[in-house]
TrEMBL record:
Residues 10-146, 167-302 form the EamA domain. This is DMT family transporter. Gene3D superfamilies: 1.10.3730.20. It comes from the Archaea. Keywords: Membrane, Transmembrane, Transmembrane helix. The chain crosses the membrane at residues 12-29, 41-61, 73-91, 103-123, 129-151, 163-187, 193-216, 228-248, 254-276, 283-303. PANTHER family: ACYL-MALONYL CONDENSING ENZYME-RELATED, SOLUTE CARRIER FAMILY 35 MEMBER G2-RELATED. Signal peptide: none annotated. The lineage of its organism: Archaea, Methanobacteriati, Methanobacteriota, Stenosarchaea group, Halobacteria.
Amino acid sequence: MVVELSDSLLGVGLAIVGAIAFSGQFLFVRLGTDGGDVSDAVLVVLFCNIALVAPPVLVLYPAPYGELFTPTSIAAFAGAGLVGMFVARLLMFKSIQEIGASLTSPVIASNVLFATVFAIAFLDERLTGVHLVGILLIVAGLAVVSWETAATTSPGQSIRETGATLVLPLAAAVCIGMEPIFVSIGLAEGTAILPGLTIMAIAGTIGFVGYLAITGSLRPFPIRTRATAWYVGAGVSTTAGFLAYFAALEVAPVVIVMPLLQLTPLIVAGLSMVFLPQRLERVTWRVGASALIVVIGATLVSLSG
């Protein structure tokens, strides 16, 4: 007997796989930036993305490869690469280095707020009452994160200083919330997952290298180091996450896919307790509570979608 999955159920499964894969990124980056450089982390992860997705495109799709794209899909995927793979990663990796993976991931999960607003504004998707309750729970989770950030990073800092600490992950969340809008536009043009992801990775790499050149920060980075090995791990895990995430967006709406990706904070908190030393991550009950609140909110959002 063959069990057929609905598109929505398949999208849910793929989104959960993406959340697990993206969780690895936080841990690998946290380990690598312990003595490593954030710019190196972004660059290595981008190179890994290209190395893992571009060759399969050349093998699986016939030439001429230009027929895989339309001008709109190229622009959309390039926009997603610049916003999500370049700007969001730079902000997120810096936040992981400064306040840790377990505190950064719940704040990053607030991207569902921005993704929902953008989806309603540009993709004609709808907001329900249960959806709104879920979003409010996510906001409550962020409040707990703010409290815990103040308690663990600099106990004597003011509320304004605590808010400034969270600017990096919040800005990254805004960028990540914009990304699926671009991706959905590209997919609607008929461009497949792998070619689209390749354009994203190339655009993100070009944008980041250009940024390094303009700021005078472009330099060779050490290859045979422990930090680079962790960054490669982050690159592999993010590529797997993006493939699952793209596939989910092909079969399910943004308001279902994006909230389920927010399982990541809970997974990160659990993995941090098991695999990361306490000098890098101090996972308290408040960190776990904030992650759980975010996950509950994200679940309500996905169910209402």
